[in-house]
Write a structure and sequence with these properties.
317 residues; seven-stranded mixed beta sheet; six-stranded parallel beta sheet; alpha/beta; 15 strands
Length: 317
């Protein structure tokens, strides 16, 4: 089968299409023929080893897993002997590493569900990763019903999901993004939208119960002045893992404002929740650009500009 592989760390140009062995499902797995996947900020970070600490998990000198990709949408091609939830021909979406390929095996108990009726593969593929990251952070903040939440970086994959999820959980949402995306973010349900190119929310004097940094560019000292007493700043960017756990621990004992770090665990329960929200119209993944799998290098270059709105999708012929 064809897959996008990288055998060294580096720029997008280290990626190439190659023939690799097609996986065979175990008894508790399904084989999915992938029709669409995504290029995420996580993919580009792992490929470039932007944060050296990631090499302790992905391979110190070279990648242990040469095929990137997390999100997928496709068709069940084969099922293991113990599988009862899925059948051959089911249209499914979810999360599984190694998704930049024509096929991937996913455990029946893994982060996989059927695609809602009427939804295309391209629409379903980017539904899970941003939502899972946002859910992990928002849950750290506690119950959101009736509380005020500011989403910083509200036009990215995690931010667009965070705006919609916070609204679903009953929060009053203030979104911060660049000027070109103000109307888009407002259409996602944000109660207020601030253009960071014209206004610094930390200097407005307004305070919020929760400040959700969805892009890893907001320092706690800067955000602290915008938190109410008892409020929390939450974030999940790997580039800040060195100090977020320390701040999370310190703020449990010092002061009246907290720091929380979302730890993402891709689960079937979360994928099922995403499916319910898609079906109810409470959530829709935002798609910026779509590329064929063969143009993965160009897609990765675009993601690395930091200018994407929502998600970048790869279609697999």
């Amino acid at each position: 089968m064809k897959a996008v592989v990288h055998h060294t760390y580096g720029p997008p140009e280290v990626l190439r299409i190659d023939e690799v062995e097609r996986p065979v499902p175990k008894d508790d797995e399904v084989l999915v023929r992938i029709r669409a996947t995504t290029v995420t900020r996580t993919d580009t970070g792992l490929r470039s080893a932007e944060f050296f600490v990631s090499r302790f998990f992905t391979g110190l000198l070279r990648p242990k897993q040469p095929v990137l990709g997390l999100e997928l949408a496709g068709v069940v091609e084969q099922v293991g002997s113990a599988v009862t939830e899925f059948s051959v021909g089911d249209r499914v979406f979810g999360v599984r590493s190694g998704a930049h390929a024509e096929y991937v095996c996913v455990r029946e108990r893994g982060a996989l569900a059927r695609i809602p009726a009427g939804m295309s593969f391209e629409e379903a593929a980017p539904a899970c990763d941003g939502a899972a990251l946002a859910l992990a952070c928002l849950r750290k903040a506690g119950a959101l019903d009736g509380r005020s939440v500011l989403v910083y970086g509200a036009s990215g994959a995690v931010g667009t999901a965070g705006v919609q999820l916070a609204k679903h959980f009953g929060a009053h949402v203030t979104a911060v993004c660049n000027g070109k995306n103000v109307e888009l973010v407002r259409s996602l349900g944000a109660d207020e939208v601030l253009d960071y190119e014209r206004e610094d929310f930390t200097r407005s004097g307004r305070t919020y119960d929760v400040v959700f940094d969805s892009v890893g560019k907001l320092s706690y000292p800067r955000a602290r002045r915008s938190l109410k007493s008892g409020g929390a700043m939450v974030g999940t960017d790997p580039g800040r893992l060195w100090h977020l756990p320390v701040l999370a621990l310190l703020t449990r004992w010092i002061g009246d404002k907290r720091v929380g770090m979302g730890i993402t665990r891709y689960s079937k329960e979360d994928v099922r929740l995403v499916k319910e929200l898609l079906e109810s119209g409470s959530y829709r993944p935002v798609i910026d650009r779509t590329y064929p799998l063969e143009d993965v290098v160009e897609a990765a270059r675009y993601v690395e500009t930091g200018q994407k709105t929502g998600n970048v999708v790869l279609t697999v012929a």
